[in-house]
Design brief:
Largest sheet of chain B: none
Number of helices of chain B: 14
Largest sheet of chain A: 8 strands, mixed
Oligomer: heterodimer
Shape of chain A: globular
Number of helices of chain A: 26
Chain lengths: 694, 314
């Protein structure tokens, strides 16, 4: 291939994709342009329903059967992709375009070894003859030590991070001209995400591969991409070099997105989130004028009647807003209004019991002992998921619980709620010990202790209306009659910013954010003292997440409820929580007021987690390499400090052999479990991020 | 894998043991006194008591069970009440016949059903799919004796190609018996074909939706290889279980087909035993059928493990 042809990269012009037959079938993508030059990384950003995945699949010529291109042009190095027949497409897929998908495990065949599937990428017709050395070299290049073992493994035997590295190796083996990455880090831990991003950055740098990076995460995109395209409801609304987009967004939707993301270092009190009201329109019911006008704070009459043209707003910048100049000059604000701030939370008297105390909580899972083990006299093994956890949730406050997967966060939540009772230790609700098993708890305790799960889809009965779901706690736990319960349901719906007529709706008529509001409403229905949130805002779009976070904050002030808020997302926890606890392998490594935990001196694990969070600022980057390795299996916890195997500040034998002491600051609230004394930790601390040239 | 194998074999032994108890208990509950059945209405109480003692029926039920099970294990399956013949040679000969019929049926039915299922799935919602679905449903809707009689009418009476009577004499070799086997095997095939074909279709369609299929296509693997190398291996898993269950049915449940063709299989021997209240014969046939069924399931489990590494390795 001549350098000249490669020079053009990916070019998409005026692309429209419809789902279904006929000229009036709903269009998921309308008249979209996109260019990715060789060696360039372009981010494609938008919330669910924006059409970013449809656009990526159209570029790959891999739209689902119902989807079809209805106008426009897609070319790679000048070759028309839309004109290709099946044979030409196979050649395109073999050598020129590769995809790294969102979920690596289901994207691999469970019945074949990883090696076989990699070989197939190199030699699709005869995988048996593929060049094994090239595969091993590639596995090595994506940071997988011991390529031989990886090759012989089946996908389910690898960790999530390893699986995604394999998918990246699979894509790069073809030496593609265009690499499409579809949310490749979305379901990974923050530390694994940082390592994968570091890997991608290293692989892409200096190569002439064009990379299209699809993501909902503004942080990831800001750290990785040269240019960003923002999609909304199937249309391109803004396109700019990454630093300009973040420094000076022109389109009100981009502004709204940036204002919706919780930032590390800002909290609910000093920078409330400004969510975008309403929801993204369905392609079947588009507004007549600008698609964003119904949700736009700067919309004027003309915006609602005429569709804005995509205008040039400077070199390399495009924006589809008729008021972009006024926004650029500061004559008009494109920011959503900040939520009205209620008075400070009620002060808690010093002598008051905490809403929840966990005292020495242990959780063991007995490994199953088969008949053969019994005959051989083998002892039942035990996996210790929680090892002496002490925590306090203050009344009317939020304790944020963070840690990677396998740290024991969810196990702790399930132990508090009684679904998987603790093996040892005590929970106290307002100073009164809780019975361990949920079945043995009386109604009053259940009323006072509620939980909101991650997946509202699974937590709501699809055959029961919203009203019926919300009525139950009033009738069952509060003993109200039907009419009074219905009145309370209506009030409750309003308190979670839904209208009373939602009571008649079924769960499948609600958007993801609305469903999660209903599960929040259900938790509040019984007027509980403590609510557990287990990843309850994860997996939601940023604007939806922002309004939910604001809602939780508001409800806490109004009702004086206490929260145990579990999340893998440190920025979200830092935004919402008054206190933070960092869990690793079933032990609390650091805990205390949020401002203290998230500021030096840090526990080395907290430090690593904080450094891994992708900053929503293209001018800064993590100042240190991401944490290596993965959380060890709870089956073989190191005898000394659990974090010693990965700790960048490990002292030596003492860390590996002796359990570290817990030290407390003068206030008696900030605790660190580490062999390194606090003052030394403070001295060791360097900035987490550094400024970079963009 | 060895661990898995040992567990499956242990499981099999336990299943057979429990079923043997069940079989024995059920036959005990059947009405009628075996001694009276053997000696007839006119027999006097003394003669009856003497025969009961000879047969061991005066002992306690657990003792009788252990005696019977011990005999079965050591090869002494007792004598038939009805004919006075030794049971073991009778049952093993009939078992041989049933295995032949089952083997031939599976040999025809399984590849055909898988092929039809795959063709239907690949052409989902198009005419080959409709044809296969409608055709196989129409056939499965007919009772076995109707299918059998239609086949006899066509191939024996009209065309004269195959014999209508499949009563092969004892000791006939497989090849010599083949002409007689074809029509009963075809009838049994038609009965199970639709079920396996539809299951295969559903399972192939489900696998085709999985993300790994897209990954394979986007590597530039040809459609044929995607199907053969990726989809089939995973899609066959549910079919294996169902085929193992049909094997049990073919061994001992083919009563109607065997009767239509006068075929000397286990099913017909079972009707004979039930007619005559021949308890030892019933017990032996049932236990043999259970063992055969359990073995078929063991083979299915092993095939499953061979195809699915998640079972083999965890």
């Amino acid at each position: 291939m001549s350098a000249e042809r490669r020079g053009a990269g990916l070019e998409v012009e005026g692309l429209t994709v419809r789902y279904g037959d006929g000229p009036d079938a709903p269009a998921a993508i309308r008249d979209v342009d996109l260019q990715v030059a060789p060696g360039e990384t372009v981010g494609l950003v938008g919330e669910s329903g924006s059409g970013k995945t449809t656009l990526a699949l159209a570029v790959l010529r891999a739209l689902p059967e119902a989807g079809r291109v209805d106008g426009g042009r897609i070319s790679l190095a000048g070759d028309d992709l839309l004109a290709m027949d099946a044979r030409a497409l196979r050649e395109l897929w073999r050598h020129r375009i590769k995809l790294v998908p969102q979920n690596p495990l289901p994207s691999m065949n469970p019945a074949h070894t990883v090696g076989h599937q990699l070989a197939e990428s190199l030699s699709p017709d005869r995988p048996g003859r593929a060049d094994r050395e090239r595969i091993d070299a590639m596995l090595d290049a994506v940071g997988l030590a011991d390529p031989g073992r990886i090759r012989r493994s089946y996908p389910f035997e690898l960790s999530g991070g390893q699986q995604q590295r394999v998918m990246i190796a699979m894509a790069l083996l073809g030496e593609p001209e265009l690499l499409v990455m579809d949310e490749p880090t979305t379901n990974l831990d923050v530390t694994t995400e940082a390592a994968i991003l570091e890997l991608v950055r290293g692989l892409v740098r200096g190569s002439d591969t064009a990379v299209l990076y699809v993501s909902h995460s503004l942080g990831v995109v800001s750290q990785l991409c040269d240019r960003v395209e923002v999609l909304y409801a199937g249309e391109l609304v803004e396109c700019a070099p990454v630093d300009e987009l973040y420094d000076a967004p022109r389109h009100p939707y981009t502004v709204g997105l940036l204002d919706s993301v919780p930032l590390l270092g800002r909290t609910k009190t000093d920078a409330p989130l400004r969510p975008i009201p309403g929801r993204i329109p369905d392609p079947t019911e588009l507004p007549p004028g600008c698609v964003f006008a119904p949700r736009c704070p700067a919309a004027e009459e003309a915006c609602r009647t005429a569709r804005p043209a995509l205008e040039s707003a400077g070199p390399n910048r495009l924006v589809a807003c008729r008021r972009w100049r006024e926004i650029a000059d500061g004559d008009v604000s494109a920011r959503q209004p900040a939520p009205g701030h209620a008075e400070e939370a009620l002060e808690v008297a010093a002598g008051d019991a905490p809403a929840l105390s966990a005292i020495g909580i242990e959780k063991r899972f007995e490994t199953r002992r088969g008949l053969m083990d019994r005959l051989r006299g083998r002892e039942a093994g035990a996996v210790k998921a929680l090892r002496g956890v002490d925590l306090e949730v203050r009344q009317g406050r939020t304790l944020g619980l963070v840690g990677e997967s396998g740290s024991g966060k969810s196990t702790l939540a399930r132990a508090v709620i009684g679904l998987e009772p603790a093996s040892d230790g005590t929970f106290e609700l307002l100073g009164v010990p809780l019975t361990r098993r949920l079945e043995r708890r009386d109604r009053e305790v259940i009323r006072r202790l509620q939980m909101v799960f991650q997946s509202s889809d699974e937590a709501l009965n699809p055959h029961r209306s919203v009203g019926a779901t919300l009525r139950r706690p009033f009738m069952h736990l509060a003993g109200l009659d039907r009419a009074e319960a219905d009145r309370r349901v209506a009030r409750l719906l309003e308190s979670v910013n839904l209208t009373a007529d939602y009571a008649a709706r079924m769960p499948d008529q609600l958007s993801g954010g609305e469903k999660q509001r209903v599960t929040v409403a259900r938790a509040f229905a019984s007027d509980p003292e403590l609510i557990l949130f287990d990843e309850s805002v994860s997996g939601l779009d940023v604007s939806v997440q922002a309004s939910l976070l604001n809602l939780l904050d508001e409800l806490q002030r109004e009702r004086h409820a206490s929260y145990l808020f579990i999340s893998h997302d440190l920025a979200v926890v830092a935004h919402l929580a008054d206190d933070v606890a960092v869990l690793y392998l079933g032990q609390v490594m650091e805990s205390g007021p949020a401002g203290t935990v998230l500021a030096p001196p840090y526990h080395p694990y907290t430090e690593a987690l904080l450094a891994a969070v992708p900053r929503i600022d293209p001018h800064v980057a993590a100042a240190r390499p991401p944490l290596e390795g993965e959380v060890p299996s709870p089956r073989d916890v190191p005898p000394g400090c659990p974090f010693a195997t990965r700790c960048p500040r490990v002292l030596g034998a003492v860390c590996h052999d002796e359990p570290p002491p817990v030290t407390v600051d003068e206030d008696g609230r900030h605790r660190i479990r580490c062999h390194i004394p606090r003052d030394e930790l403070l001295e060791l601390q360097e900035p987490l991020v550094e400024r970079v040239a963009t | 894998m060895t661990r898995y194998l040992l567990r499956r074999v242990g499981f099999l032994a336990l299943t057979v043991l429990l079923t043997s108890m069940l079989v024995f208990a059920v036959t005990q509950l059947l009405p009628g006194d075996p001694a009276r059945i053997i000696l007839g209405r006119e027999a006097g109480p003394a003669a009856l008591a003497q025969l009961r003692e000879e047969l061991g029926l005066d002992r306690s039920v657990p003792v009788q069970y252990l005696d019977w099970l011990g005999g079965f294990m050591t090869g002494d399956w007792g004598d038939s009440y009805g004919t006075g013949q030794a049971i073991r040679p009778l049952v093993t000969e009939r078992l041989g016949n049933s295995l032949r019929l089952a083997g031939l049926t599976l040999l025809v039915a399984v590849p055909l059903a898988l092929l039809l299922g795959i063709v239907a799935a690949v052409n989902a919602e198009r005419w080959p799919d409709t044809l296969i679905s409608v055709g196989s449903l129409a056939v499965v809707g007919l009772p076995e004796f109707v299918t059998g009689l239609v086949l006899i009418q066509l191939f024996s009476f009209q065309l004269g190609w195959l014999p209508a009577n499949a009563s092969i004499p004892a000791g006939t070799g497989f090849v010599a018996a083949l002409p007689q086997l074809i029509l009963p095997a075809l009838t049994a095939t038609l009965v199970m074909l639709a079920y396996v074909a539809r299951l295969t279709r559903a399972s192939v369609l489900e696998e085709l939706q999985r993300p790994y299929v897209r990954t394979a296509r986007l590597k530039g693997v040809t459609g044929r290889s995607v199907l053969l190398r990726h989809v089939l291996r995973n899609a066959l898993l549910p079919a294996i279980t169902v085929i193992a269950i049909s094997f049990g049915w073919l061994i001992s449940g083919l009563i109607v087909v065997e009767n239509v063709f006068n075929y000397p299989g286990l099913g017909r021997l079972m009707t004979f035993a039930i007619d005559r209240r021949d308890l030892p014969l019933m017990q032996s046939i049932t236990l043999v059928a259970v063992v055969a069924f359990a073995l078929a399931n063991l083979i299915a489990d092993l095939l499953y493990a061979a195809l699915d590494p998640r079972i083999r390795l965890s």
